[in-house]
Write a structure and sequence with these properties.
The complex is a heterotrimer of chains A (337), B (276) and C (288).
Chain A: E1 3-6, H1 10-19, E2 23-29, E3 34-38, H2 57-60, E4 64-73, E5 76-81, E6 89-94, H3 96-109, H4 116-124, E7 125-130, E8 156-160, E9 166-171, H5 174-181, E10 188-189, H6 206-214, H7 223-227, H8 236-240, E11 247-253, E12 257-264, H9 285-304, H10 314-318, H11 325-332
Parallel strand pairs in A: 2-6, 6-7, 7-8
Antiparallel strand pairs in A: 1-9, 1-10, 2-3, 4-5, 4-12, 8-9, 11-12
Chain B: H1 3-16, E1 22-28, E2 35-40, E3 75-79, H2 81-92, E4 101-109, E5 112-115, H3 125-133, H4 142-148, H5 152-163, H6 171-175, H7 200-213, H8 223-227, H9 234-249
Parallel strand pairs in B: 1-3, 3-4
Antiparallel strand pairs in B: 1-2, 4-5
Chain C: E1 16-27, E2 30-37, H1 40-49, E3 55-60, E4 64-69, E5 80-85, H2 89-95, E6 102-109, E7 122-128, H3 132-143, E8 152-158, H4 167-175, E9 180-185, E10 197-198, H5 201-208, E11 215-220, H6 223-235, E12 243-246, E13 262-263, E14 266-267, H7 268-271, E15 274-276, H8 277-282
Parallel strand pairs in C: 7-8, 7-11, 8-9, 9-10, 11-12
Antiparallel strand pairs in C: 1-2, 1-6, 2-5, 3-4, 3-6, 12-15, 13-14
Helix pairs in contact in C: 5-6
Amino acid sequence: MTRILLRDKLDNCVARWRKAGLTVIGPVKKETFSSYAAVENAAELDLSMIMPDRSIKGLFFPQTEPMLHYTIKKQALDIKDFTPPPEKRIIFGARPCDASGMAIDDPLFGWDYKDNFWFQRRNETVIVTIACTKADDFCMCTSLKLAPDSTKGSDVMLRPLQNNRGWLVEELTDRGRDAFNEIADLLQDGSEPEASIAVVPEKFDLDACVTWLQKTENFESTFWKEISMRCIGCASCTFLCPTCHCFDFQDEGDTYSGIRRKNWDSCSFALFTMHTSGHNPRATQSARWRQRIMHKFNYFPGKFNVNSCSGCGRCSRQCPVDMGITETLQAISTLQP
Amino acid sequence: MTIQETYKTRAKELLSSGRVKMVVGYKAGSTPDRRRPHFIRTPEEADRLILDSACIANLSGYLITEGLLSDEKSVGIFLKPDGIRSLNILAAESQLNIEQIVVLGFDVNNNEITSLKGEKAEDFSTLIESLKEHVPQTPGNPLLERIEAMNDKERFAFWEAEFSRCIKCYACRQACPMCYCRRCIVDCNQPQWVNTSSHTLGNFEWNIVRAFHLSGRCVGCGNCDRACPVNIPLRLINAKMAHEVLGAFDHFAGMSQTQEPVLASFKKDDSETFIL
Amino acid sequence: MTENIQTAQQNIYKPAIMKIVARHDEAPGVRTMKLEFQNPAEHELFKQNYRTGMFGLYGVYGEGESTFCVASPETRNEYIEFTFRQSGRVTTALANSDIGDLITFRGPYGNRFPIEKFYGKNLIFVSGGIALPPTRSVIWSCLDQREKFGKITIVYGARTVADLVYKHELEEWERRDDIDLVLTVDPGGESPDWKHRVGFVPTVLEQAAPSPDNCIAVICGPPIMIKFTLISLKKLGFDESNVYTTLENRMKCGVGKCGRCNVGSIYVCKEGPVFTAAEVSKMPQADL
């Protein structure tokens, strides 16, 4: 039995979810930037943009996160755990590329040791994605074998109806079903004609790329220096990427008390792999760019059977020197294997 | 010949005559309005050179990355006046030997491109002097005017809101030709002078420290602003500091390769009576 | 192999609290510390999981954490010993710590030396300078079950006599008649009363000429020493799959998540730090 959610009911839905104790988060556009932010009513949501500048990654893996609090008195040490404050949330209007990004990182944060910071937030958050009816030149989900209406990582998928009337509701997980039970009476049975899903042409042959990357001799290819000459090592791509997950620990405080934090880090930074001895295995920007591409499309899938990229295109959209994964993979797919 | 063709020919001549080993310029980007840095080593590669009003990035930072000039050969580079000022600063701060640089100067005003005569940085000194004389007294930028009209509390609240978006990606630092420290102050950990976390304190620390480190050195190219992935209006802070430095010390960054850095030099007639 | 012993509610980044119960200056800037667990449950976990070869992250709150191997063997898991050289922020804080102070330990992480594969074989340990600690944990694991192994030879050298670590244990090993100890210092590093060899470790190894038959080699040292030692071992007829070594890399999390320590596709914190020379030669050498 299909159900639809009409747009004019959205305000009620937001109110209903908030009353049930859920923080409602969605795409919000301000004067100079856009992001996923908490909203109090539906009018604050901007569901028409292609995607917010920032991904939903920051909602599960914040830029800075306290892990432990310590106090030292003489030779006694007191350590308090930080657990993320419990907060049930619903993200309304996530993009499929953002949702799939979170699903891609689940196996990493659960590899042998479960990172409770990540999983607690994952367990407490319902992701309601809206399939894309438009895309821009930087979108590349289809090249990663995903799609503008991919359901990977979503708890509920909403498929837009024609004339902006609302959405067709597709509940995918128990979490999603529970959240939509809260608004069951606001939904309508039946269906209406759907709007067309965005067409995203394939930009590169992923399989050909991966074959090239897996060949040992290509690690030392001069291709890496050529393709990355203009990279300035700024980490914009890393920080906006839904799947990038590198981090650093920082102790903030003094010798008597403080907080140990987990902060975002990037393999593009020059000092990322610097040893105290002064030896740096990746001393050139081209070595670091190679690491980025190899990790995303060779090492990560080798361990977790999924590429560490959801095709959102933010890296290319934002790069100050117009680089990005698309360009590199397009170039690789033209090289001899 | 169009200006673009003139410059293409010049770039080719510089390369084929062996005068330079590389020309750093612009080429087409991934969309019609984007331009990318282009590193040209042969006359054939110069065919992809583009020079138009979309070529606004300051490329001078590439001159000092990864030892480009360490083989003592010459490099040609396309620079607008802000880039030429950057070049002067890099030379004045001993980061490069200005004799190795052949400047292909151009300017972009009101979406129009103009060519500038000259080849060495010093050929443009009259132009830069006139830029100093014509620094506008009033901001001319609507957002800057709005901020100027605020009182201290309002300004603090404004910047607190802007900095709250900072994610400590350091794109501003990487894009800036003047930020060349091998180990930036945020990378120092004995002690950790500046927090790397993006909480309020960490964000203020970083952005303010950077603004101070650029005082009297920023040329207003806007690379930082364009690089910022969360659209913080960074160039305004640096523009304000440049304005302050001009007023207090009559210092306009990048006038020549012998100009002393304003915060690293003390003159007897400085308005401060004590060196600290 | 470490089991998945954490639940989703536990903070995997929370370290165990250790008390420094002994410390010993080995060489200029190099110190060994002996640590004891303060929490019995944390100690139990360690005893369950620790195998020779694994490493830990040793930390001082307020400063950070650093990675070092566990220099004591699995056969002596009542305490942890580790050796470090003072070189940066965390090691300076460790160097300024006294007996009775509390520091932190996170681990044990990584893989282990497959010591049961060495049973019945001859063993040759080759090490240089401050890289003796990881080798030492294997040496003691073997000495604690001496009857299971054949001939044991230890080749160890440092730049100068002062730079040799575990000097007391070297004397002890020299006195034993079930170990053949070959000590050396680099040319110019000998003291007037130096009784042992003078020469670089790979050269001295070739002079000692251990037979590759039924023999496992364990080598730990700075990259340059490993490179030339491997050449020497190959000359002596050793197969790369019978040569074990440890790799180090900059680490932060130690559990495969922070993305820092990989050499090519191999995460040193999860699939290492113990590797055979055959495995290391398959890694992209430019990433080492």
